Amino acid sequence: MSQASLERRRLSVAGNDEVGSYRVLRLSDPDGPPPTPGQFSMLTAVDRWGGGDDERPFLPRAFSVMRVRDGEAHYLLEDVGPGTNRLCELRTGDEVWVLGPLGQGFRDPRDDRRAVLAGGGVGIAPLAIWQDALLERGASHALLLGFRDGEHAIGANLLRCAQVATDDGALGHHGYVTELLASELDENPHAEVYACGPPLMLEAVRALCEERGVPAQLALESGMACGFGACFGCVAPLRDGSYLRVCVDGPVVDGALLAEVESHAGSPA
Asked: Is 114 helix (H, G, I), strand (E, B) or coil?
């Protein structure tokens, strides 16, 4: 498992590409530690990271590493608030503080099971780097992606050979990605599910896999102040009554450890 030092690195923006409703922030990082699929980094714009001189600065934002390619680290963004807005407006040559890769990533399927990847919205990001690793090994897998509408579904082009569902029926299956997952498991129950997305989706995946006895690895998210376990701001309850810290014990967690996926534990915003 790759683990970065706890020292921030100052990286230059190599590009910030529009992909439907998303942006792909590309950072020049030729010497960075290689991430394990499913790990994340804490990102902070070097300049203007806050509301103003008299306001508190924004907390760093946690983003899954989407892929590493040609000396660049890629992150998938959606403009949903002041922090992500600042990152979305960065241009080539701007600079970003990066802490990472951090956390626990995906593990290989158990018992020769086929990998089934299920992503929702911006939660497709860690599945991209995981699919890259599976393709490099020639491992058979299925990829199921869900989006709210056609504009968001353009993000599916960042991965390969996806079955797509949209809430409004604009593209692919009219409905939820979990409906595609149920059909996939009907056809091949000897599978291990890898999922990342909004909390309602992750809870549906967890419950579906529990009902069918299918192992699932869920990439959780929680509001993080540090990213390395010091602040205990991202705890999530486990089935046995104990807690985990999403940033160090996750973000990828065995679904069987969870009684439920709480509402704050979905893909990054």
From this structure: strand
